[in-house]
Amino acid sequence: MTIAGATQAVVVTGASSGIGEALARAWARRGATLVLSARDEVGLARVARAVDAAGGRAVVVPADLTLEQDRVRLVQRARAEAGKIDVLVNNAGRGFYGSVARIDPLELQALFALNVVAPLRLAQLALDPLTRSGGAVVMMSSVAGVVASPRMGAYAATKFALEAISMSLRAELAGTGVRVIVVRPGPVDTAFREHAVTTDGRAGVRPRGAQVQSPDDVADQTLRAVDRGQPVVETTTFVRLASAAARIAPFAVRWVSAAMAARN
Fold it and tell me: Model pTM?
């Protein structure tokens, strides 16, 4: 089922930059109402102006999505301002680089609060309006949701968890009209690595041979997946190969992972 149209109401978290901004701009070109959320109020205001200029309508809801009251307020504002929710895009999240042997449990809890608990709770809170509209939940995962590389164990753990939640939720919502769509990008040309938590003072290293995508490309593929009800989107050849290798050649993945750890 296609949800596209001028009356579309879309909630995008992590909307102040990167993939979230690209998603907002792409839906704005369709005339949608965009409910934009992030902690960066300056960035949100800039994206809102771009949405309005592109033909959409922007509703700005600054929020810290690790707080339940902010999650509730976001869904309530979306329903009040747009009258419905057609698409919930759980894009907000943060990276984490560091040795698994040295992960601080409190830092891991904070990472799960944003990358896993927040999208889970938003999906729960938005379930009623999404059911009414026959809408879609988009979970922004990662190639790290299927393959865990060295120094990315904590981040990958959150994305593995998000994948599991999405798989179960999709099955549980069968027959309700609500689709659950998982998007798995690889490296994207954003400030993701610069904004990530690092426990050893070193930025993340992109895997050799990995295609670096533009946020606009990820956004375009996401919108097409929503239109088609496509359950999983692997956005580059690199992601598709890594995902296939994890399933059919795990020994090769272990060898590559060990080689990467030795280099880093």
Answer: 0.89
